[in-house]
Design goal:
With 133 residues, this protein is α/β, with parallel strands linked by helices. The chain is 41% helix and 23% strand. The longest helix has 17 residues. It is globular.
Length: 133
């Protein structure tokens, strides 16, 4: 049913909590797992921790190791851009059948706190999106 699962990650607590759901679904369906983290393009000095390519690379490596301990091999992708748009673009590129993400991430879109990355992904996604509270 879910041949390819995309799991966009950041350093939020919600992303860590969603990992359990990812493990369950990937193991149940024998899915290919793709981990994605986005280095945000920043035009001002917001100080966002996801603006460092080194931080993002380490985050992906840690997540890959976590899934490996569960017997799941994961591919990693690091991209630069606006998180919601990048997540949807990558979902399309890898042929994702499902995106799993936490209900909140660290990044918000330019429009403000009412329009979160999660909300944008739900509205733009080329496939179903599972939001883990």
């Amino acid at each position: 049913m879910f041949k390819t699962v995309l799991f966009p990650i950041d350093q939020s607590r919600e992303a860590r909590e969603a990992a359990d759901m990812v493990v369950n679904i990937v193991q149940k369906y024998g899915s290919r797992l793709v981990l994605l983290s986005v280095v945000e393009e920043v035009t001002d000095s917001t100080g966002s921790v996801m603006t460092s390519p080194e931080t993002v690379a380490q985050l992906l490596e840690n997540a890959k190791s976590l899934f490996s301990q569960q017997g799941i091999s994961a591919e990693t992708i690091e991209r630069q851009g606006k998180p919601a748009f990048t997540i949807c673009d990558v979902a399309d590129e890898v042929g994702a059948d499902l995106i799993i993400m936490g209900c909140r991430g660290l990044g918000l879109t330019d429009e403000g706190s009412q329009d979160s990355v999660t909300t944008r992904v739900i509205n733009l996604s080329p496939c179903p999106v599972l939001i883990v509270p």
